[in-house]
């Protein structure tokens, strides 16, 4: 099924937005709080670093399974299912007067939704309050004939009062259903009117009690990115700090909406975004991966299995690990093992496949992901993570499903998306110094 939305429909939806009441010409910045940060409402102080890593890896497997299932892969992946589909939290407000919403920032979802009263079947939420539509003077439910409802395609139904009903599911029996609506959204002091979102009245999910719902940052017409297009011109960027480093535990990563971030200079590389269905995901083309001077052809490897060579991997901030096809992963891990020539050991979590005892990062060769038009040199600290004292493991794993360029490999890069010019850019950056982007 073709899930691409006609351009005229996208323009109608995005064009309904008013300009923000407060903004500068450079856009606006919001904190991205990693769920394991002490600043996060999901933080559990009793967890050790090993516990946090173990949970992050399992969430990564669960997310990769969900994203792959959306594309119709007959996944062979086995993992404990975690309902929370991402790693970063955003704090926004919805309504007039504004009500706090803590949502999972998800580049693998389009529709933003939050739990609403009356809620006949809600997961327990004790953090921010549930939204009360009747209390917001700017709330408007959408009819079944609205352009926003059309954009939902198969994920919709109509109730007896002609209100458009959405349903989002997440592959682990978690779902959210409710009214499709418009209301005012607040990002700090910047507000936008008439933003489409889901007001969830029936939500069966394994979400943490401090989380309101999902903030959709995908590429589809109902995502925040495309709805804010009249102001941000299809541009957003983020800079991720290491989430498993005690020295940065009290800092937040940043996401910027608009063109105020200067991603330019000799160190910037850009690669085309490839339009594919579903339009939610950010597809790029990986040509090869080099280990030192040795180049491993990714496109040639996957073409043997009949995989489309263009748009063969997605860039996703919500997946911790990077997933590559099993056959290619075998070439990559063998090449690394031959170059490192260290003492291998087993991952205590039983998830990662290439691990070393007392690894000196200086022994790891330079690894470059060669996307079309963009060579991204991966820092060795992103490639190998110390999962417990004295044991470091490769943060890339094999998968026969969807290939994903995960967030550990993106740490300390400014990653900029331009949906108008259809490209994504990478610039090496010390993200701890990006206080406001």
From TrEMBL:
Source lineage: Eukaryota, Viridiplantae, Streptophyta, Embryophyta, Tracheophyta
Localization, UniProt: Secreted
Signal sequence range: 1-18
Peptidase A1 domain mapped to chain residues: 88-427
Homology family: Belongs to the peptidase A1 family.
Source species: Helianthus annuus (Common sunflower)
Domain of life: Eukaryota
GO terms (BP aspect): proteolysis
Primary localization: secreted
GO molecular function: aspartic-type endopeptidase activity
Protein name: Nepenthesin
């Amino acid at each position: 099924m073709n899930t691409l939305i006609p351009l005229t429909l996208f323009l109608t939806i995005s064009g309904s937005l008013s300009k923000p009441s407060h903004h500068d010409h450079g856009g606006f910045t919001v904190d991205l709080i990693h769920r394991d940060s002490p600043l996060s409402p999901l933080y559990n102080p009793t967890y050790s670093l090993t516990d946090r890593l173990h949970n992050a890896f399992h969430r990564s497997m669960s997310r990769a399974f969900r994203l792959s299932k959306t594309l119709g892969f007959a996944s062979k992946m086995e993992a404990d299912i975690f309902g929370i589909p991402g790693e970063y939290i955003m704090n926004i407000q919805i309504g007039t007067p504004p009500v706090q919403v803590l949502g999972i920032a998800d580049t693998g979802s389009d529709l933003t939704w939050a739990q609403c009263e009356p809620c006949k079947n809600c997961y327990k939420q004790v953090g921010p309050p549930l939204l009360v539509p009747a209390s917001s003077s700017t709330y408007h439910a959408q009819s079944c004939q609205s352009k926003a409802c059309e954009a939902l395609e198969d994920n919709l139904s109509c109730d007896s009062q002609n209100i458009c009903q959405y349903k989002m599911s997440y592959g682990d029996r978690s779902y959210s259903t409710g009214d499709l609506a418009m209301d005012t959204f607040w990002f700090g002091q910047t507000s936008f009117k008439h933003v489409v979102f889901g007001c969830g009245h029936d939500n069966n999910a394994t979400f943490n009690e401090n989380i309101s719902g999902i903030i959709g940052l995908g590429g589809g017409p109902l995502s925040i990115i495309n709805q804010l297009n009249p102001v941000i011109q299809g541009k957003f960027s983020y800079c991720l700090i290491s989430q498993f480093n005690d020295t940065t535990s009290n800092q937040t990563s940043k996401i910027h909406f608009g063109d105020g971030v200067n991603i330019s200079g000799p160190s910037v590389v850009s690669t085309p975004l490839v339009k594919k269905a579903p339009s939610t995901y950010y597809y790029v083309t990986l040509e090869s991966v080099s280990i030192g001077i040795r180049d491993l052809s990714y496109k040639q490897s996957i073409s043997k299995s009949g995989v489309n060579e263009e748009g063969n991997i997605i860039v996703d901030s919500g997946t911790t690990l990077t997933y590559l096809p099993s056959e290619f992963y075998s070439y990559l891990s063998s090449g690394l093992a031959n170059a490192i020539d260290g003492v291998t050991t087993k991952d205590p979590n039983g998830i990662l496949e290439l691990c070393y005892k007392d690894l000196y990062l200086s022994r790891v060769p330079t690894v470059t992901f060669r996307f079309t038009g963009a060579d991204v040199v991966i820092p060795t600290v992103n490639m190998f993570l110390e999962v417990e004292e004295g044991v470091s493991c490769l943060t890339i794993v094999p998968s026969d499903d969807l290939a994903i360029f995960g967030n550990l490999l993106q740490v300390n890069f400014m990653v900029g998306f331009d949906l108008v010019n259809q490209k994504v850019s990478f610039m090496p950056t010390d993200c701890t110094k990006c206080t406001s982007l």
